[in-house]
Amino acid sequence: MPKPDLAALHPQETLEALSDFRFPPYISLAHIFNAPRDWGFSGRILKQYALNYVIGGRGEFAVGDVADVVEKGDVFFYRPFEVHGLRALPGKEFISITVVFHFADAPFPMEELLHGTHWLGNYAGQPVEHHFAELVAKYRQPGLDNRLACQALLLSILSETSRQVCVPKPEEPERRKNLARLILVKNHIENHLDRNLNVPEIERLSGLSWNYIITEFKKTFGTTPMQFLIWARISKAKELALQSPLSFGEIAAQVGYNDIHAFGKMFKKKTGMSLTDFCSSLYEADHRIHWPNQRA
Q: Which residues form the HTH araC/xylS-type domain (predicted)?
């Protein structure tokens, strides 16, 4: 007898099957979906919450009569009983992570966090991207420790996306100017993952003091420059491992580690698994991933 589609059920109908979750949030689905070309649906209603993170390609999601184009790094959100749709743009690939969850009868301040928003921002290269990938990997593994880790990762995603949703837009010209400089710093770090942070160079590039950068970077992006460098290196290492023929030693060098053992220790410390285990967890036969050719 085929297993029921837990993501399509009413929350109370999933509890017996989700008995390995001892308390909410209950996660009924966490997987990577590689949409066929020209794939899509409309008019769907779920009875649970759904978060989506776009890994690659471009698509269009709609809630009611409002539609938005989404691409790599975008996070979007559906609430229970909202009529919604999603499709790959014509001729485009669309790969995303979907997490469906609920809180059963337990109250949870979702609207206090997300204020009715559906598009939650772009998080390419940020910790939220890592959280989604780790959630999918750990969801596939049995054990109470992995279930607790999945719940912690989901709550971290909700917390970090809510910060961006609630950030007031800067009004003063100087703050707008400094925001642009912080984005320049973020891009500089992301484009030089093979280097350690060069504080004098970053200060010259941005025209900001290092102490100011540390404080405002965390306020703006939810992480310090050093933490962002680490997570960006992890994210890039995962991408290279899944999409390139490079050896793990070559991957380590590209993300700033000449010593593969030091790289391996860092990766396992931050993710809870080795890079080999991460790749294996995503290539199980029943959820095989076909990544887009980035070299095309």
A: 183-281
> The pTM is what?
0.59
What does the block give as tokens for 113?
């966090």
Alpha-carbon gap, residue 205 to 137, rounded angstroms: 38
φ/ψ of 70, rounded to 5, equals -125, 150
**In a shared domain, residues 107 and 188:** no
The domain tally of the chain equals 2
Closest CA to 222 of 115, 120, 110, 72: 120
User: Is residue 201 within 8 Å of 210, Cβ to Cβ?
Assistant: no
Query: Is residue 1 situated within a structural domain?
Result: no
- Domain extent at residue 219: 168-296
31 and 145 belong to one structural domain: yes
Neighbours of 91 (CB within 10 A): 8
Assign residue 162 the CATH number of its domain.
2.60.120.280
